[in-house]
Amino acid sequence: MRDGRRGAALFIVLVFSAFLAGLAAVATRTATSGARAAAAFADGVRADELGRGAGAALAYRLATGDAAARRGGAVALRLPGADVTIDYLSESARVDANLAPVALLAALAGAAGADPAEAEALEARVTRFRAEAAARAAPPPAADGGDASPAGGLAALRAAVDALGPARKPPPTAQPAAIHDTAEVAQAWGLSDALARRLLPLLTVSNGTATVDPVLAGRTVVLALVGGDERADDYLQRRHQGFADKDSALALLPVPSRDFVAFKDVASVRAVARVRLADRFERRYEMILAPPPGPAAGTPAPGAGATPDASPAGQDQGQAQGQGRRPVPVVVAWRKLP
């Protein structure tokens, strides 16, 4: 008769072996997941650097290209272990949130799906917001008497806004840049979440003009200009075929909308860079490029009594300005896309 303790010992050995095998499997999975996490982190860092480098590549393209290249296009870069593609379009294709007439903004909201009452309310809110911003930016009036109390507070602000009148709006040239990022628009204008999702992609703060270019604008902006789906489709079809000149592109627009359009070259562009690594890791980035800020008043321009930077970049910038060439744009906004 066999000893039962041998079977018990064998059972304990088997259980302990299974336990060790489980620990080994957990350790292997932990090490593998850690290696994958480290690789994903490294890929993300490299993709981000390439995404920022895409801005420098596009800036060079804009500084050296012709007028057609500055209106829009694509750049493809093949790098060791990575491919980068950049699609960009002039910001004149979007409506400037600070400078566009409120009538155009109301029409744009209607084209984006807002009902007439909501578009009319938006027009009133934008008018009041701009008036309040202009009142805040205006210097305080000088007091006539020495014992007069200084004007201020919410009551004085409301009085200044009401003095402008409901129908008057500040001229675009005198209007402060009250909105510095389109992310501020929803709260500043009191937009609903649904309308904000449809309206914000159509707006910009980098256009720099009160007009929009219908040759570059998207369908919703064209719909706001022409006021009907059939007219918008017809305009886009004619645009795809190619306009003979600017007058031909303008003739298809209703007369009231012609004050809202222009065919000027805007120096700012919006781009989407797609970075794809060799291991199929992919990310997209959105960026806005604009000309560098000019020198402050009273500051001599490079080459006019000032000593240019001794670095190659400084020499190139000084030579470009001295010879009348365009300055190299800079990235003013950059973000990762989901």
Ordered list of secondary-structure elements with their pairings:
Elements: H1 4-64, H2 67-71, E1 72-79, E2 82-90, E3 95-96, H3 102-111, H4 116-137, H5 153-164, H6 185-189, H7 193-199, E4 203-204, H8 219-226, H9 229-241, H10 246-251, E5 269-277, E6 282-290, H11 312-322, E7 330-337
Would you kindly provide a written description of the structure presented here, covering whatever features stand out?
This protein has 338 residues and is of the alpha+beta class. The chain has 2 domains: 38-90 and 269-295 and 311-337; 95-139 and 150-260, no CATH class. 47% of the residues lie in helices and 14% in strands. It contains 11 helices and 7 strands. The chain has helices at 4-64, 67-71, 102-111, 116-137, 153-164, 185-189, 193-199, 219-226, 229-241, 246-251, 312-322, and strands at 72-79, 82-90, 95-96, 203-204, 269-277, 282-290, 330-337. The strands form 2 sheets. A 5-stranded antiparallel β-sheet has the order 1-2-5-6-7. Strands 3-4 form a two-stranded parallel sheet. Helix 3 packs antiparallel against helix 4, helix 3 (102-111) crosses helix 8 and helix 8 (219-226) crosses helix 9 (229-241). The longest helix is centred in the first third of the chain and has 61 residues, at 4-64. The radius of gyration is 30 Å and the shape is elongated. It starts with a helix and ends with a strand. Residues 289-338 are annotated as: Disordered. It comes from Lichenibacterium ramalinae. This is General secretion pathway protein GspK. Residues 296-324 have a biased composition (Low complexity).
